[in-house]
Amino acid sequence: MNKEHLQYGSDQSGLICGYLFTGEDAGKAVRTTEVLHYLNQSQKLEPSHFLWLHFNLANASTERWLRENSQSPEEFYETLHQGSRSTRIEHADQHLIAVINDVLHDFSFDPSEMATLWLHVSHGIMISARRKPLKSVDHLRNAVNTGEIFHSTMELLTHLLRDQADVLTGIVRDATTKIDEVEDHLLAERLSRKRANLGELRRLLVRLQRLLAPEPAALFRLLQKPPAWMADNDVHELRQSTEEFSVVLSDMASLQERIRLLQEEVAAHVGEQNNRSLFVLTIVTVLALPINITTGLMGMNVGGIPWAQNDNGFWIIVVLVSLITAICAWVAHHFKNKD
User: Fold this and answer.
1) pLDDT at residue 36, rounded to an integer
2) Per the confidence metrics, is the pTM higher than 0.85?
3) Could you please report the per-residue DSSP string of 189-248?
4) Count of beta carbons in the 10 Å neighbourhood of residue 335
């Protein structure tokens, strides 16, 4: 494999990597100067040829270079600056504008480790742009570098969606492992700090589902009225990839429900422990009540205190207090067994 393919930095134009596909062979890496030849039509693309250009928006010159050299529609640049980043694929004239949310390359279950990938897809070119390294697009790039053959830009987009579904599947699998661990600790009554992780994990899954779930209306419109250059097979593959993606999102929703039920079980377990501790504290208070009342009464500096002059007065009081305490203990034990 050519080491040049594995470089992750962008050049002065913001281009991270570029590939030329012929539909018959693996993608060929192209530099910015070669890309300019194709975009300016000084070297015209064959009908079966197409380009994939991947840009880094963190490079300040990227958007300016795209505006000057590519024929991306204005909707693509408007999408780059929109506040809404929900996952969607929209039809703009004969172009597709896609917004795909993905996790970072070194994702570690932190809600801040998610970012957006913007795409412009047409018959002869797919332009992708991101600000941070993302897992799914790196998987697609590795597939191209290892020699996988693509016949159209829609195949690239479909492969990207399936890569994202694979990433989500891995996240769900790891989350399931974490939940299994918490459940094992719950059954062994060794929760410690594990229960606090459930809330964080549930919030992360909710945010992932909210950001990654495609907008049904936009996708429905695209599949019903695709651009003229989209082949029927591409439409079928796109529909199938979205169905696979929906299955992963359904698994994620089921996992959220499992976390919710586990949280309720943990809360019930903690409540039961608190009730037990409160009951023990109440019993101790009740058992100490007779002696506290007796010492309070006997300690008053007033006349008429019984057995004050009796040599056995102390022992009489001890017997009485012990008897009352024993009665209180029997009553508390009786009510405990009754409950």
Assistant:
1) 86
2) no
3) T--TTHHHHHHHHHHHHHHHHHHHSPPHHHHHHHHHS--TTS-HHHHHHHHHHHHHHHHH
4) 11
